[in-house]
Amino acid sequence: MKPKVFLEFVEIKSLIASVLPFVLGSLYAIYNYHQVHLGYLLLFFIASSLFHMATNANDNYQDFLHAPRDADNQEFLEETNVVGVNQISIGQARTITFSLAGVSLILGLWLVTKTGLPLLWMGIYSYAVGYFYAGGPKPISSGPFGEFFSGFTMGFMIFWISVFINTYDVATITWQSTGQVLVAAGLAIFAIANIMLANNICDMDEDIALGRHTILYYLGKPVMLQVFAWSYVAGYLCLIGAVVIGVLPPLSLLTLLSAIPVYRNTRQFLQKQVKRETFILAIKNATIICLSFAVFMGLGLLF
């Protein structure tokens, strides 16, 4: 397989959605617990990145495998899905997917032996979501909870695991500490969930033709466009709440400046929802939000 095809198959461009929560979780641990385990953190970064690519690859080949073979879906099979466009065999697709996931699993299990069982339970949840998101008899992505699982798993779980790996030897997991991490990660959760929501909004007609009953199928596009817009507001409120309870540095509030470009992009998306033209706006919003969050949180650590 050519490198260009491989990178397209694993959707390397989407890796930013897991890298930034990783950075944010690490900064959270430094701010609140004043320590970092750099070696373990690096291994987790590699493991999570490999698994993110494996999940994307699994999504692509599962979508191709389960798409109805009729005239209505020929365009999806031959011109849209990366497996069909590049004529990737199912065997090759599976080999790549399970190889990436296997290496990630080995690294994850080794980290469990060093940090403790909580990481095992976090990992089991994450791997289960990663597979069943597109695999199994009823994939998560084909139902009404795709946005929740994508936002929660990437925006919160990666953030939380990054915190745990840096603090496993100085702090225990409690309901209070978990709730604090959840609030602090809220901005990333909503921004990442909106990537999935924007994708489903743009693909609504195609999804219905393929038999997918996403949240759009039940609540309709007008309602979900409002949810898309207000989700960013909810994320910014989480940011303010996290600063108020003292788990984020006050300078993190400068992240609110990102609301200006996010507002412009959101208005543009609300006016036109076309996959090849405006879906990128949701990715831009998530990148702007999480990157500015990381920068201003980092500045908060310095000053």
Polypeptide structure, described:
It is a single chain. This protein is mainly alpha-helical and 303 residues long. 77% of the residues lie in helices and 0% in strands. The chain is built from 15 helices and no strands. It has helices at 3-9, 16-33, 38-66, 74-80, 82-85, 90-115, 117-132, 146-167, 175-202, 204-209, 215-219, 221-244, 259-271, 275-278, 280-302. The longest helix is centred in the first third of the chain and has 29 residues, at 38-66. The radius of gyration is 19 Å and the shape is globular. The chain starts with a helix and ends with a helix. It comes from Lactiplantibacillus daowaiensis. This is 1,4-dihydroxy-2-naphthoate polyprenyltransferase. The chain crosses the membrane at residues 12-31, 37-55, 96-113, 119-136, 148-168, 180-202, 239-260, 281-302. One of its GO terms (molecular function) is 1,4-dihydroxy-2-naphthoate polyprenyltransferase activity. Keywords: Membrane, Menaquinone biosynthesis, Transferase, Transmembrane, Transmembrane helix.
